[in-house]
Amino acid sequence: xxxxxxxxxxxxxxxxxxxxxxxxxxxxxxxxxxxxxxxxxxxxxxxxxxxxxxxxxxxxxxxxxxxxxxxxxxxxxxxxxxxxxxxxxxxxxxxxxxxxxxxxxxxxxxxxxxxxxxxxxxxxxxxxxxxxxxxxxxxxxxxxxxxxxxxxxxxxxxxxxxxxxxxxxxxxxxxxxxxxxxxxxxxxxxxxxxxxxxxxxxxxxxxxxxxxxxxxxxxxxxxxxxxxxxxxxxxxxxxxxxxxxxxxxxxxxxxxxxxxxxxxxxxxxxxxxxxxxxxxxxxxxxxxxxxxxxxxxxxxxxxxxxxxxxxxxxxxxxxxxxxxxxxxxxxxxxxxxxxxxxxxxxxxxxxxxxxxxxxxxxxxxxxxxxxxxxxxxxxxxxxxxxxxxxxxxxxxxx
Length: 398
What we know:
Layout lengths: L6 H17 L2 H8 L6 H13 L18 H13 L7 H14 L2 H12 L5 E4 L15 E5 L2 E8 L10 E7 L10 E7 L5 E7 L5 E14 L3 E2 L5 H15 L3 H17 L1 E2 L2 E2 L4 H27 L11 H24 L26 H7 L10 H12 L3
Parallel strand pairs: 1-4
Antiparallel strand pairs: 2-3, 3-7, 4-5, 5-8, 6-7, 9-10
Helix pairs in contact: 1-4, 4-8, 5-6, 5-7, 7-10, 8-9, 8-10, 9-10, 10-11, 10-12
């Protein structure tokens, strides 16, 4: 594939850049550029602005808010968004449940859920992992027993990201305990305000609250909130995870982090000269940039071929993207910490170094928290060990 952009594609990228830098509030972008995390309001504002201009969910069918863009244009849209420090559309809505509903849902479910999902009027969270069913997801135990026009749901989900902000959850539930474990699973949509739903926070190593446990105690769910066919949820989950593994590469995000690293390294002195001029540091930085470029080429190849695989058949190369992309994201966070050195330990506004005589340096606001937080990148969307197994079987045919 020739990855050189055409004149039209460069113009498209410029159009997206102009949109993101003029339509998304500057105060949001400036805070993210400093390394601060997007708030719920930031994400909501950004996605609703994009949706009002018809570009929040460009990969969806045009009937439901998508754009008739090429894979390259969708890639440029995502890259310019991240390079300009714009909070991307909520992944649970835009990348996960939305495409599943659009592909496999009934017309009634599409009409009910897709418009508010695109506009973030519904904030979704993902109910897949369980205490004893993480990478081995098909071992999940949460049950949904049909009683008339309802399912009665009992069980527990864990590591449920941003469940504290969500008002709906899409869940994998076991509807046939006698079937082969992959065949007895269904895809159910559950209102988080339903009686019997409990959310309990999990505090992370950096002190933040991003993930949760979710408990279901005899939760009654209308049967018309089942997506697709009963016991076919594993196929829908594979479709979702294929999309997720392509998206989690976040090439633009890693590029943006590299730009920050360069800026900080130019300001950091080492041996009487800027760290950016140190040969060993430059070699490490260059290797990271080369590998990011290489994975970007692979992303483009996967996007170029996605339309030929058919629904529910994600390109197994998406596992390569997830594996390598998560490693590069972690490398970038490690390099940021190394640039700051001991100064990176003072990462809160109330922290300082040298007994309070030195201000918290630029970049320290997120260096250590992001380093700790991104240890998760090699685990979610299927751990990297699982991805290696997929690659061995589906690509290398071992």
